[in-house]
Request: fold
Amino acid sequence: MADYTKMWSELGLDLEGHDALLSVLGGAYTDIFLSQKNRPEGMKYFDFVMSEVHGLRIQELMDAKAQGRKVIGSYCVFVPEELILAVDGVSVGLCAGAEFNFEGAETLLPRNTCSLIKSAFGFKLGKVCPYLEASDVVVGENTCDGKKKSYEMLAPLVKDLYVMDMPQMKSAAGKALLKEEYRRFVAKLEEVSGKKITVDSLKKAVEVVNAKRKAVKRLAELRAADPSPISGLDALLVNQVFFYDDPIRFTDSVHKLCDELEERVKQGAGVSAKGTTRLIVSGCPMAVPNWKLPMLIESSDVVIVGEESCVGERGTRWLTEFKGGTVEEIIDSITERYFNIDCAIFTPNPSRVEYVKEMTEKLKAQGVIHYSLQFCQPYIMESSPVEKELEKSGMPVLRLETDYSQEDAGQLKTRIEAFVERLKKK
Ligand code: BJ8
Reply:
């Protein structure tokens, strides 16, 4: 990586803390990703993106800002990237997946807050996230209680925090609220960018984001093959890069990877032997560099063939379908699309478990690992009905609760191995 010290200091990063973070990240990446056997050549692009995730990509954001474009950071897949692109903005994901400066985070947040939120605060207070520091606006959303209340603490720490209200029920009133919030967000984006959303800019933005989603859907479908042409770790990485990369370049790179995977499928080649145990992971999102659980799973003679998660199919499986040609009608279509997302903050939330079932059938999975972050009430609460419903239909489920630390790795590994044994005996 080139020397980006000047850029990082101009962004106000704590260089010492940032160096420490990058060195841990680099080591983990080499151990977890580069040590995998039989990786597709197409993953080289994603290795490169990761090696430059705090370098070249940040330089691109700074160049975009110098041209007057705004960088909009967000923590949730309910924030429509289409609207950001329609004012020529750059959308970046800010969720953090590392246990960094939790002591600092706990000076503001209760200890029993999920790791995802603590990590976001740890990164902010430790000044180690260039995406957050480069963001002109940080968008929060009233999803779970943890996030909702933590934004009150985040507001004084960032330049411009904008909070979106969120429905909690899939009702007509809920949909109307979401649409109203998207309209309010459009007004905010127009104000900060100085650009008006037009039919053309919105249509083009929808096409760009839909193309990105279609590419990862193609990748998801290829994983139905036995043997799977790609590991769950690599597929997760692609889904994580989804939130950072330039959307057009990302789409092209995913298609190139898929072309190669299609060849593998034709030749019956894969990352592991045909007949390897296949699992789906369902639950909380896994932000970079949260690779602990998939690493433990795939080192247990298993291949992960799908993620029912916001960093995975829950975030990407719907496209925005045009149902009219005015800005108002396109915002309606965007609302329709996002209102489908079956996050556990909704009550009731039956479509989520139905979709997990559908995934197990499509992807020929033999079991499901339900992953909740400790203290994440929505997903922990929902894990029990998900388990009951799936087990009722004959699909074995292992419920795991964990955090970002490595302390429970041994215990998790034992439980995963016992689960895999159970599946092999079936
Ligand atoms: S749409 S899943 S990205 S809210 S893990 S912070 S839920 S306590 S991340 Fe999410 Fe949007 Fe829903 Fe998806 Fe709260 Fe749970 Fe923590 Fe979570």
In short: The mean pLDDT is 97.
